[in-house]
């Protein structure tokens, strides 16, 4: 059997949309961990938010944060030093996005170009953010430890497609996760997945890359793996923005669908 590598979205995919629970996926996680198959989070979360989940899930490999802007590889996880990586606190860090300051400046310019008003994380008080995200204390601090990407809400009726086109004209990428839009400096999940996939190709004789997600935001990841899977949303539907031929639909909401995807992969061997 080919040497499987699993790239996965977190929120709404491996983690339940509301409770952030992972119980339904635990048998599949345990199976992959016991077989030494890497599970690589590919998430909109910050690096600070992602590390506790990596530890909780007993994962030992790399992860991708802030929608592909950052790649974090534990030192010694892969042979040699990845090109463009910087060593920091026992990790190799690869930055694909510009800094958070550039994202915030770009958002201000974009709002003037596209004619909309907004409130971004950088503008909100801790109380306002806590009310919107449900996070507090250490979890809120981890969410605010942003290095590349600025989440924001738009305050009036708007044309998201038009705003997205204007963002692209300026070299930025606009995505939406839940109630928040995210602005990044052109990077996306697919670019980061390709970097890690190439590193694994240098080490493994026959790698086979799986991608599991729940939304259009995961499409760049789907386009960068051998076998992509789309899980169901909380209402039992599939994201209609993901083309039928872009990913295999699996039955199951969030972590239940994740487990079904992994079980499907394991039957191929």
Can you put this structure into words, describing what you see?
This protein has 9 helices and 13 strands. The protein is of the alpha/beta class. The protein folds into 2 domains: 3-96 and 188-266, HAD superfamily/HAD-like (Rossmann fold, 3-Layer(aba) Sandwich); 100-184, Threonyl-tRNA Synthetase, Chain A, domain 2, CATH 3.30.980. Strands 2-1-11-12-13 form a 5-stranded parallel beta sheet, sandwiched between helices. Strands 3-4-6-5 form a 4-stranded antiparallel beta sheet, sandwiched between helices. It is globular, with a radius of gyration of 18 Å. The mean pLDDT is 92.
List key phrases describing it.
2 domains; five-stranded parallel sheet; Rossmann fold; globular; single chain; 9 helices; 269 residues; four-stranded antiparallel sheet; Threonyl-tRNA Synthetase, Chain A, domain 2; alpha/beta
Short description:
The protein is of the alpha/beta class and 269 residues long.
Strand content: 15-25%
CATH architecture annotation name of the largest domain: 3-Layer(aba) Sandwich
Question: Mean of the pLDDT scores?
Answer: 92
- Uncertain stretches of 5 or more adjacent residues: none
Secondary structure blueprint with pairings:
Elements lengths: L2 E6 L17 H9 L4 E3 L5 H10 L6 E3 L4 E5 L11 E3 L2 E5 L4 H15 L3 E3 L5 H8 L3 H8 L5 E5 L5 H10 L3 E5 L2 E5 L4 H15 L3 E7 L5 H4 L4 E6 L15 E6 L1 H12 L3
Parallel strand pairs: 1-2, 1-11, 11-12, 12-13
Antiparallel strand pairs: 3-4, 4-6, 5-6, 7-8, 8-10, 9-10
Helix pairs in contact: 1-9, 3-6
């Amino acid at each position: 059997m080919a040497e499987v590598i699993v790239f996965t979205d977190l929120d709404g995919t491996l983690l339940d949309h509301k409770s952030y629970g992972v119980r339904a996926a635990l048998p599949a996680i345990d199976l992959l961990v016991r077989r030494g198959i890497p599970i690589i989070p590919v998430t909109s979360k910050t690096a600070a938010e992602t590390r506790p989940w990596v530890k909780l899930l007993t994962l030992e490999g790399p992860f991708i944060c802030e929608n592909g802007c950052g790649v974090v590889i534990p030192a010694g996880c892969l042979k040699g030093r990845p090109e463009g990586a910087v060593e920091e606190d026992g990790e190799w860090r690869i930055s694909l996005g510009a800094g958070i300051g550039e994202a915030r400046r770009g958002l201000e310019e974009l709002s003037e170009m596209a004619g909309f008003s907004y409130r971004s994380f950088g503008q909100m008080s801790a109380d306002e953010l806590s009310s919107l995200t449900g996070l507090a204390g250490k979890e809120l601090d981890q969410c605010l430890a942003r290095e590349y990407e600025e989440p924001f809400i738009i305050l009036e009726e708007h044309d998201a497609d038009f705003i997205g086109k204007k963002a692209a004209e300026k070299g930025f990428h606009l995505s939406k996760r839940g109630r928040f839009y995210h602005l990044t400096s052109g990077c996306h999940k697919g670019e980061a997945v390709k970097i890690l996939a190439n590193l694994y190709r240098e080490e493994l004789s026959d790698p086979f890359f799986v991608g599991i997600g729940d939304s259009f935001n995961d499409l760049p990841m789907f386009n960068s793996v051998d076998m992509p899977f789309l899980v169901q949303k909380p209402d039992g539907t599939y994201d209609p923005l993901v083309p039928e031929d872009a990913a295999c639909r699996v039955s199951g909401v969030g972590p239940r669908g994740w487990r079904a995807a992994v079980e499907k992969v394991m039957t191929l061997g």
